[in-house]
């Protein structure tokens, strides 16, 4: 089946003024100005739609949808915020996680996101199959996903930050990491599920765990992920604990490679930015949570200029507090302009970061672009709301006027959102179940 997504109002792709041809699960061709495709089996009239590659969320914590705007943690910096929430999160059970993942994926889909990375690092007793649950939910909704098998093994008694109730020992973590890699990781183009290994952060993991995770990643050809240089407190912790700055810790544990992408990446020196760029280490900019927690501003322009893949993420739904990739793009634009000036960060830059840039972080050249051979992952937005009335540039309007909900979303050639609703999902029932589950964390 060859489907012509025909005559869009605008499209974020070169040479596709008249749309794009989808064949099976991939993009078969672009239709340029004045062109007519030779053969099509079906036509979708996109004349009301602005078409983007499916957005790619490079950093999230799905379980946190259950603790948005929690009174124990609002109005605090990262370390006290975490200390307040760890005991609350320790109540997490499989039934909670399943609903949290379903809600996060639903919210992301509705914002035009087709590929998402979830960093799950909490393993209280009974939640050993967290990765399995995330995989089941992603496949059920038809969302492409990198499930990051996160981990923490340093608790407060070891000099770390989290309590004993949410950490695991190194051997348990490494054994389960290998288990989920064998079960779920698909390194091929077009994969719906990939696994990444994601020791949480320098203040909750050991050097051995980082080193052994890097060795596993080489063996199984997967990506590596962690939080790094998010706050000044983290830098001081690393100096006290290891006698190293965070980037030096990466170097010493074998993490300076193209397999690695980092969340936040705020407090780098100019020399460190150069090293990261030369190594091809990616950075996921999480503008909203960085502002909420007052952590600082990612040096996006310098990182990209140095050669580091640069993507966007919504981060956890307890520090954003939403799971909306279009909002993430707008936040990145606004904070980027505040740092660099109105002419240095454009709507095209943040759309590129939210698509191709995030895909590069995840090691996925097969998504994030509307070009032949890439996966047919598309997000279609209309400009029918009052917020868009009078807008002249449709692509700029999505970011500047604050688009937040897609009308149509396609993943692997199949419509997953139609008329602003997730196909096959009772959203009202999900919200009711999710709200009821959240009461367990009050």
From TrEMBL:
Residues in Amidohydrolase-related domain copies: 50-413
UniProt-listed Gene3D superfamilies: Metal-dependent hydrolases, Urease, subunit C, domain 1
An MF annotation (GO) of this entry: metal ion binding
Entry keyword Oxidoreductase: no
UniProt organism field: Roseiarcus fermentans
Family: Belongs to the metallo-dependent hydrolases superfamily. ATZ/TRZ family.
Protein name per UniProt: 8-oxoguanine deaminase
Keyword line: Hydrolase, Metal-binding, Zinc
